[in-house]
Amino acid sequence: MRVLGIETSCDETGVAVYDGGAGLLAHRLHSQVATHAGYGGVVPELASRDHVRRLMPLVQETLAAAGLAPGELDGIAYTRGPGLAGALLVGAAVARSLAWGLERPAIGVHHMEGHLLAPMLEPDPPSFPFVALLVSGGHSQLVLVADVGRYRLLGESVDDAAGEAFDKTAKLLGLPYPGGPELERLARKGTPGRLRFPRPMTDRPGLDLSFSGLKTAVLNTVREAGDDPRTRADIARAFQDAVVETLAIKCRRALEATGVPRLVVAGGVGANTALRERLAEVAARHGASVHYPRLAFCTDNGAMIAYAGHCRLAAGERQGPDFDVTPRWPL
Ligand code: KG4
Ligand code: ZN
Predict the structure, then answer these.
(1) Which residues are annotated as a binding site for Fe cation?
(2) Both 60 and 152 in a single domain?
(3) Which end of the chain is more exposed for a tag (fewer CB within 10 A), N or C?
(4) Which Enzyme Commission number(s) are on file for it (predicted)?
């Protein structure tokens, strides 16, 4: 079965084709970073308009790269939520129209399911069950994944998501949007241990997370530091260390609590090298394997949606021709 996947939940237009036999046939991405950079964050209306402009050409480009005619597709998957309502509607409308025109089934996929299944596209995919750390701009969750569609929430952020904390802290440090990768770059120049921020919610049992207090601690330190470049790099380093160590402690607890020896790290923050290195150590100490999507599939992309949609369509799941989007949608 060959499934076209469409991702438009935020500021990336992603399209891919996944084939049940041959794997990923092609994927294309248009990032809107340049569109939103001047505003310091994603402007929802501009995001929707850009998806409208980009999506159909990107679908054609992806099909050409896969060497497929539209009629050779067996189904269409799209991100149904969570995300920006207008942006989601563009993907949903295009996907549904294509499915209608081609007389193929369409399926709305949960964006976070896409993220947590993304490591299945790699050469050494994890087997079920696994523990997944989902860390993106909108979510920070630990999930026990028993199978496709069988998810148990182990813990989640009670306030800001990890990516959101990276973005807000980057902004406080005067770094351009998107903040996460910029902050990581600055943190590399910082001296480890010169500053220290708290590891929130690690002093009590449990797997929930919290990052808003950390942001406040950074704010106070930034105010004191003024614009001394060395101190700003040290702040970035101390912030990243605090987030990484907090996530490492919670992942260790999740591996211990579940007894499952496989850890998956997904979502945009999973692109962070310091986090990857630290979690590799944690997993190794537990005799657990750790699985990441390739860097390009940590952040939003069409491939993860094509894959998740393929799993569901191949299992016989079907939806009626009417559609809606679900901007807020628990996993
Ligand atoms: O998964 P994603 O592309 O979009 C959402 O579904 O939210 O994640 C985007 C988030 C942003 O907050 C971004 O700053 C963060 O992932 N991010 C990073 C890095 N690359 C992206 N955070 C820390 N270090 C990075 N290298
Ligand atoms: Zn995402």
Answers:
(1) 111, 115, 300
(2) no
(3) N
(4) 2.3.1.234
The parent domain of residue 76 ranges over 2-116+298-314
Alpha-carbon distance of 251 to 265, in angstroms, equals: 10
**Cα–ligand 1 centroid distance for 222 (angstroms):** 22
Q: Does residue 193 share a domain with residue 105?
A: no
Q: Are residues 104 and 171 in the same domain?
A: no
Q: Are 325 and 94 in contact (CB under 8 A)?
A: no
- Tell how far the Cα of 308 is from the centroid of ligand 2, in angstroms: 14
Q: What gap in Å lies between CA 286 and CA 305, rounded to an integer?
A: 31
> How does pLDDT run across 266-314, given as a tens digit for each residue?
999 999 999 999 999 999 999 999 999 999 999 999 999 999 999 999 9
CATH of residue 161's domain is: 3.30.420.40
* Shared domain check, 224 and 174: yes
Q: Establish how many alpha carbons lie within 13 A of residue 45's alpha carbon, considering only the half-sphere containing its beta carbon.
A: 1
Same domain flag for 157 and 241: yes
- ipTM over cut 0.95: yes
Atom index in ligand 1 nearest the CA of residue 162 equals 12
Count of domains forming the chain: 2
CA-nearest residue for atom 7, ligand 1, is 137
What's the pTM value of the predicted model, to 2 decimals?
Answer: 0.94
